[in-house]
Amino acid sequence: MDPTIEFTDGSGIRLFTRTVGEGPDVVVLHGGPGAHHDYLLPQYDDLAIGRRLRYYDQRGGGQSPADRLTDVGWRAHVADLQALLDHWKIERATVVGYSWGALLAMLFAIEHPDRVARLALVSPAAPSIEGRTAFELRFAKRSQRPEIIAARDQLQASGLRESDAEAYRQRAFELSIAGYFNDFSKVSDMTPFRVTGRTQSAVWESLAEYDLRDELAKLSITSLVIHGTHDPIPIDTARETADLLGAEFVEFEESGHVPHVEEREKFEAVLDAFLP
Asked: Distance between CA atoms of 51 and 22, rounded to whole angstroms?
């Protein structure tokens, strides 16, 4: 099905959406904040056999831009998801959230538990500010691994910036996200993306000293948590999220933050077994 653009409220925000497949609805929430859905492709589209995947670019990112006067805090993102479910006539949703998108799924489930039938949280952002802080420290350290520093030095000395600017930008992007990977040689298999800095900052500022753990423990939603052993988001925070939700927990031992790239076949099999 071709991409569409839909209005969700009176704020002037237009959310870019994309629907793939036919069958039970599954709403997919990308990471960021401030990114866009297509960096989950093509791998997530593998799940469209026998079900309908509904993607959208969250407000303030990708093809859903927001001006500087528009609210892009977490409550606005929750309201957008509710409006989209209403538009799609989905009473109780199956939601797959990746990274920040998993945290958005948790926030939505806390605010609207009656609207969520199933939760699949992939590489979820930590449920509290303590875990978020630990992630930032771990990512900075992982980005300074000797092999990544050597690759950066090699790129700077290559002359590629002058001879092929586009190839240089691609390689620079790959090295900027290499800390998310267990095997950073696989970074070229990930679809490039950009993050809108204002949106990213506004979301984390709106969350402030957040801690969702008590509220997560009150939920009764069939859930799955997937997390890579080598993810800079500490795996203990994902286990904690799974315990709070009473969720099945699946560890991806060869992955960092992007199991859909690093262990694509296992990723597809685990989610395919869980989703309707």
From this structure: 5
